Structure formats: C-alpha cells, structure tokens
Amino acid sequence: MTLSRRLVLTTAIAIALAILVTSIVFGLLGRRALVEQAEGQAAVVARIIAESARLTEVSLEETEAVVGDILTSLALTADHIEGRTAADLSDRLAEIVARGGLDSIWLIDDQLNVVASSIGGYSAVLRGEEVPVHLSRQALLDLASGERYSADFGPSTDGVHYVGVRAPGNRAIIVGQPVAALDAVREANSVPVLMRELLDRDNIISIRVVDDTQKLLASAGPQAEPASYADLISGAIATNAPSSAIRLGHFWVAAPIHDIAGIVIGAAVIEMSNHRLNHLLWNLLLYGTAACLIVIAIGVTIATFSARRIARPVEAMTQAAQQIDARTFAPESLDGLAAQSDELGTLARVFRHMAIEVQRREEHLEQLVRARTKELEQKNQLLEEAARRVEAELMAARSLQAAMLPQTLPADPAFTGTAAMLPAREMGGDFYDFFALDDRRLGIVIADVSGKGVSAAFFMAISRTVLHAQAREQASPGICLARSNDALCAQNPMELFVTAFYGILDAATGQLTYANGGHNPPLAVRRSDGVVEEVPRTGGLALGVMPEVAYTERTLQLQPGDTLFLYTDGISEAMDGGGREFTEARLKSVLSGTDMQSVDLVLASVTDAVSDFVGDAPQSDDITCLVIRYLGQPETAAA
Predict the structure, then answer these.
(1) Over the stretch 162-203, which tens digit does the pLDDT of each residue have?
(2) Which of 97, 242, 452, 491 is least buried, going by the fewest C-beta atoms within 10 A?
C-alpha cells in the first residue's frame, strides 16, 4: 500500500472514530437528558397529585361550609314565614324546597312536634324516639327553647345534611340538604379525574398512586403487575428522589409524594412510552451516520489531495533510491525538490548528499574489492598448491604407514590369519603387528593410540617400534608391556597414550600367553560349538600414562579350529547417523556364525556389518581388526 493511500485511510478512520465517539457521547447525554426530564415530569405529576388531593379536600370543606351557611340562611328565611296556617306553611316550605334543591324543611315546637313540613302530610318522625340518632335531641330542644341560635348536624346516615335555627314562639326550623349534591363537585375535582386528564400527555400511558406501604390508592390507564415497579417505589420512598428504569418496553418513573410537612407519604408511578427516547436515539444514529459519511467524503477528498502533495516528494526520493540501487542515479533529478524550504526540501538535500557520498564510496569500495579479489586469487592459488602438496605428502605418509604394517602372517601350518586397518583420516593411530619370535612362537600385537591425525600416526610408529624391540628381548608379555610403557613415558612430550594387547601363541600347544594394557579384550570363537567368548581381562593400564607399572599375564588354551578376533574400539564404538554405537553385543552376534568361515570371510563379515550399521554417517574413529585361527600341528589337524 502506498504512502498516500495509508494517509487517506488513516484520515478516514480517524474521522469515522471521532464522529462515532461524538455520536455515542451525545446519544448518552440525550438519553440522560430525557431520563432526567421524565423523572422531573414524574416529580411534577406527584406534586400536582398531592396538591390536587389537598386542594380538593380544602375545597370540599369550604363548599360544605358554604352549603351550611346557605342552609342556615334558608332556615332564617323560612323563619320569617309568620301568620300562616300549618297547611299554608307546609305549602310554602315545599315551594322553598323545590326552588332551593333541598331535601326537606320542618318546623317543630319545643316538644319536638312537627308543626309544618315541606313534605305535606309528613308524620311526626321527629317526635319523641323518632328523632334520628344523628340529630341530637338536646340540640333540638336547645333550639326550640331559644338557648341556641343555630345548630349544624352535619351529614347523616341517610345522606342528608341537616341545619337548624330557632324560631319565635319556642319553635325551631330544620333544613335538610342532600349530601349527594356535592358528589359532582367532589368527583370533578378528584385525583383519578386529574390522573385520567394527564394520560396521553408527554407519552404517559398509566399513573398509579400508592401510599408508603405500596398500597394502591388510585390508578389510571392499563394495569401492570406490581412486581414490575415495586423496587422503583421502594427506591423513591427510601431515597426521597425519583427512580426510573426501562422495563416491558416502557419507561417507568417513581416519584415520592409529600404531605404539607414535607414527609413522604407515598409515591406516584408513571408508565411512559419510550418512543420518544427511541426516536431521539434513532435520529442521533441517522444524523450521525449522515454526518459521518459527509465528513468522511470531505475528509477523504482533502486527505487525498494532501496525501498526493505530501507523497509526491517521497515518491521522488523513492525513485531516486531505486536509481541508486540500479546505479543510474542522477543527482540533478532532486534539484527541484531540494530547492524547497520546508522539511521535505531539507530531507531531499540530505538525501542527495548521502546519495553522492554513497556513489563515491561504492566506486572506492569496488576498486578495493577488485584489488583484494586479485590478491585473494593469488593467495588461493598458493593455498591450493600447498594443499595439493600436503595431500600428496599425507597420501605418501599413509602409504608408508600402511607399508609399516605386516600384510601376511609368518608361514606356519599351525595358524593362519589376516588383518585390516581403515584410518578415520589420512593417517591413523591404530596399528597391529605379528612376528615370529622363534620357530614355534608367534607374537601378536594390536594397539590404539589416543587422538587422530599426524600426531597419533607418529606416536603409533614410535609405539610399534618400542613394542617390537621389547618383544624381541623379553619372553614375557607382561614384562614386555612394562618395559615399553617406561620407554614411552620417557619420550612422550605430547602426553599421548596407547592401549595395547600383546600375546604370544605357542604353535605347538595352542597356548596363548598374553598381557593387556587397557585395550579391548579379544574375542575367541570356538570351533567345537561356535560360542563367542571374551578373552579374560588382566586389568592393565594404557601405555604412556605413568611409568613403572606392572602388567599381569594370563594364558588361554586354543583348540584346533578356534579363531581369535582382535579389534580396536573403532569397531564397537562405530556410530550411525542417530548417534547409536555398534556395541560389542552386535560384534559377538556377527562372529557367532563364523566358526566355519575362512579368516578372510570373517574379516569381511565384520567390516561389512559395521559399514551397513554406520550407513552415511562419517567414520568417527580408526577401524582395525586382526583375525588369527589356530589350526594345530599337522598331525593334530589330521587326527
């Protein structure tokens, strides 16, 4: 992706994120504002309901007082009816009742007898025990006797409000007004009516008024399970503040209701439609998306223009860098850009200077490389010539080392054998030797020098010479190894050592007398049963380690046809590609079936088995082995 595209994409993403964050913030703020507005509306409704209930009660009390005054006035008006008969009085009272919307008017004497009434033939229901309980007998007597001017008996159980005044002549007038006449006023000013008037205003769906025990006092609108808003009521009453939540797809607000003293006496629960909230959020989303697209379009246009302007110098320097890589750069190609006074001009000037310096250094470096290459070619020729000489000398030394080792055993019908040495490098440190000590004894040596290469080869030659010389002088293998060890310790500046096995085979008897200086014990293959057994160890120390060491001798009786296999650790410790060793166990397994094979075939079987096991892995050590088969004296073999 080019730099200009990255700039445009980065600008567009930044603008989109900014608008998205702004829309979310404004959405949350708008939602919070609506919630606070709804909570405020609920609080206002709660105050309106509380004040309406209080004003309704006050207005009813005032209305009842006015009614009482009116009744009293009517009673006084009726009191002015004088000089009429009982029948005329009854008719007059009936007219007053009809015009005033009253229930009844009675004129009674001091004995509580009905003198006249608006009912006409009304019997003396107020006489004696007939007076209703709610009309105090004493109050009636006080009115008739003139001790009281008026009395308000209040609403009775029969739904009539009675008021009485005294009349001349020890009489009293009782006026009754139906209480139901105030029901319309009470109903018109009741809280449920007000609540119903508030429905469908400001998305209000239902209103419920409860007391401080959450007992429902009044409601308007669809009913819902109390459990859906009980916690809101508890929160509003406990905190004395509005509590809100969105449930059942609607917005619920609970606000506390206070009495005149400011004490919470209940709560108003308002169920509102969340259409307004959803509409606001949808508008914010819609307008935010539109604004985002518009701003992104404008931003991308500006960013594209700016990116091209910014990227043009960068592209010029990129092209110059490619020309430098292709070695076709022309410094004057950046003159126009370098003439600018801004940061890009400074960068172009620095880049041009660096490019010129790089070109100059490359030319100088190429000259140095050509000179050094010529010198290296000359030195490589000398090294190759020296390597060829060293290789030729090593091959000559290898041939010389191979020529030092005997190729055949001394001719004797009592034994036969063969040997092989495969050095890991051009020259090896292993060696073997067999030589006739006299007409019936054969000296047998196999040894392994520590280390590899030229140093091991030289120490091998010294060790072979010393052992060969001591074997000619000493008839005992143990003494021979001891004298050889002392001689090697005396002339061993590199502190090398050699493991060696030296044995003397008596051709007449088949007895092998031997001593071992830290070498692998040979293996004997018996002709009688094909068993492969290890020649008993003597526990000797390697030669060249420390002087004045004694070496123990032991003897092994060979029978005609028995084979003696001597080897170095290059066979038993040969490793394959996985680092696994050939081991003595595998060697014994190979030798177990060779008792009837020729010595040459025995040697080939072992070397082939090692080669197959190692595979393509490099040879890690010299491989040396010696095979000798005791045949016995001719007469013994014939027998």
Answers:
(1) 888 888 778 888 888 777 655 655 555 566 766 766 666 667
(2) 491
CATH code: domain 407-638 is 3.60.40.10
In the structure encoding, which two tokens stand for residue 327, read together?
């070695």
Phi, then psi, of 361 in degrees rounded to 5: -70, -35
The strand pair at 250-258 and 264-273 is best described as: antiparallel
- CB neighbours of 78 closer than 8 A, spacing ≥ 6? 92, 93, 96, 105, 107, 173, 175
Whether the Cβ atoms of residue 576 and residue 613 lie closer than 8 Å to each other: yes
What span, in angstroms and rounded, lies between the C-alpha atoms of 163 and 103? 12
3-state secondary structure of 427: coil
Rg from Cα positions in the chain:
67
33 CB neighbour count, 10 Å cutoff = 11
- Indicate the burial class of 330 (C-beta count within 10 angstroms; 0-12, 13-18, 19 or more): exposed
Tell me the per-residue pLDDT of 241-277, one tens digit each, with 9 for 90 and over. Answer: 888 887 766 778 888 888 777 888 888 888 877 666 6
Express each pLDDT in 402-423 by its tens digit: 667 888 888 889 999 999 988 8
Predicted confidence at residue 600, as pLDDT, reads 94
| Among 202, 329, 216, 217, residue whose Cα is nearest residue 277 | 202
- Token pair in block for residue 475: 């008839």
Which residue in this structure is represented by tokens 């595209």? Answer: 5
For residue range 307-364, what is the model confidence (pLDDT) as tens digits? 666 666 776 777 777 777 677 777 777 777 777 777 777 777 777 777 777 778 888 8
What's the rounded Cα separation, in Å, for the pair 271 and 42? 9
Q: What is the CATH number of domain 96-182?
A: 3.30.450.190
Token pair belonging to 413: 């019908």
Of how many residues is the chain composed? Answer: 639
CA atoms within 13 A on the CB side of 483: 17
- Enter the tokens of residue 375: 């010198």
Whether the CB-CB separation of 467 and 503 falls below 8 Å is answered with: no
Backbone angles phi, psi at 39, to 5 degrees: -65, -40
The answer to whether the pTM exceeds 0.70 is no
Q: Where are the beta strands (DSSP E) in 344-489?
A: 415-422, 430-436, 441-449
- The two three-digit tokens of residue 305, written as one number: 């223009």
The amino acid occupying position 516 is N
Q: Residue 211: its pLDDT value, please?
A: 86
Helix axes 453-473, 343-404, angle to 10 degrees: 20
